[in-house]
Amino acid sequence: MSIATVGVIGAGVMGVGVAQDLAQHGVEVILLDVTDAVLERARSQIRQSIRFQGLFGKGGRAHKPDDVLGKIAFSTDTKLLERADFVIENVTEKWELKRGVYADIDPICPSHCVFAANTSAIPITRIASLTKRADRVVGMHFMNPVPMKSVVEVIRGHHTTEETLGIARGLLSQMGKEGIVVNDAPGFVSNRVLMLTINEAVFLLQDQVAGAEQVDRIFKSCFGHKMGPLETADLIGLDTILYSIEVLHESFGDSKYRPCPLLKKMVDAGLHGRKSGRGFYSYDVREN
Predict the structure, then answer these.
(1) Residue from 89, 153, 231, 246 carrying the catalytic annotation
(2) CA 139, 140, 143: angle at the middle one, nearest 5?
(3) Which residues form the 3-hydroxyacyl-CoA dehydrogenase C-terminal domain (predicted)?
(4) Is residue 111 scored above 70 in pLDDT?
(5) Residue 226, annotated ligand binder?
């Protein structure tokens, strides 16, 4: 199946990264969000990210911002998805929000269109149940920053067909990425382990066992990790971490996934990590 146009729903950190990466690989993109202000910010973030890539020689060959942005239609109108061959949904990890999105887009998109949920923890089978195309729903868990990551966790829902998996892997191949296919379960592989690790690292701070720098340095120096768990949390977004660990706690009913009170407090305080300028570390928001 030839994919000419991809709808990207949600112009947050992940949606912006996915849209940019697709456009840089010549794919026509429809980037959707609820307000023009969010979309204008997304446009600026993509332009800045492309310039950053060129400045530091990252992301392969150099791209001109105007060429990449010319491949992206920024809109609040979901009716544009009438011409989408593939949709990647990147909405916040809240079930009520996701349910509304799929109820909206399922009647609009053509019957051949594949839906890919870029979710951190919500089971793909549950998402597919919101549609009349459960066989054409797949999980594609991109890692942040999307243009810099070469591997994507691909999740097979209960009804996902081999044809759908093949289409998803074909799109990833167009983007220069490899898809590793796993079976459906809350958190899949990456976040079932990662969210537990980050949550426990926050407990270490709360219990005053160590500071953020010490925790991260141990993981980087002793285990060779490029980033420590708390640096990773700031990159992902503490709000996303909290939503994901709450999904795992609800899904498994296991106390080991109980969200750390300090994590909840930081999210309530608006300390969401890089995107807000402060999390476990402080950042210049102009760099984000």
Answers:
(1) 153
(2) 140
(3) 187-283
(4) yes
(5) no
